[in-house]
Description:
Radius of gyration: 20 Å
Number of strands: 7
Number of helices: 15
CATH architecture of the largest domain: 3-Layer(aba) Sandwich
Order of helices and strands: HEHEHEHEHHEHHHHEHEHHHH
Structural class: alpha/beta
Amino acid sequence: xxxxxxxxxxxxxxxxxNGYDPVHYELGELNFSxxxxxxxxxxxxxxxxxxxxxxxxxxxxxxxxxVCTGIGLSGxxxxxxxxxxxxxxxxxxxxxxxxxxxGDLDSQNGKGTSPEYTKxxxxxxxxxxTELGFKDEKPSILRSQNPYNTxxxxxAFDTLLSMYELGFYMKDEYxxxxxxxxxEFYARHGKVDADPKMSFRRRLSLALMxxxxxxxxxxxxxxxxxxxxxxDEHSYVKMAQLVIxxxxxxxxxxxxxxxxxxxxxxxxxxxxxxxxxxSIPNSGIYxxxxxxxxxxxxxEGEYPRKNGSDPRSNPVxxxxxxxxxxxxxxxxxxxxxxxxxxxxxxxCKENLAEILIDKFxxxxx
Length: 365
């Protein structure tokens, strides 16, 4: 397969092909704030969006609103997983209610993970995410998809019913257009079905993901929802928007529903890898690594390592910008330090290594 490189060229293509509003560096900047977050703060965390400006307007007007995100459960967390968790906590601490989904059923159908292992992972991730600072208090919620693996059984059961009801608006062509950009990569490494056509199991996973968003709309009276995921999963939200549009067209009482998406950049693999994956040795940082391994990956793993190279393609800078809560002026200083590879950049890397070590210590052994 062709190697996917998460750089400005890739981002521009996704944005232009899908008509998204760019919100990042030379790609453009968003022109709206969100709750307590200024547009400058949003620009440091997100890449592009689809209708998130309307979500922000609705939220400001008092619409019943919710941010939705989640992760698949196929193994221990890596830095990319941590990024999604930290972003959910960041948004929650900024005053926004957040639903965080632990995709146990998604992992069983989409990646063939055993039910016994996903149940174990649900327990560990629930501890890990709350230890990092997520508050599982209404209107926010932290739950799994399997009703028997979560304390929030009613929400999980309701979502399964909503999946069936929303299935009426899910067309075959929607599924074929909703493949994530990394499907070939995962298939090559045996993580998902290799068939280029979306299998029934993967369709079930995607249908349930859409219901994770839609259930809040049709059963919990949440008219205004924004999904935040990595840019490689943008097509999932695109399909969900089509499904909700079908629901609105059929039922006038749902005319006020609004589903938006806001997407994060990807973290490139270490030591020159295109992506962090356990299938690629030394490409990523995982919760089960020891302190020495984590420090080595952070201090030695950036690539290319030369003066003047774009920090946005540097995986270590990507980690700093997506996992830490530095203000915009400090991030600009770090950006310049990475670009020139000066003494401050070495200090930034050392600081990041200690941050990651501290956070991953909270993963239950």
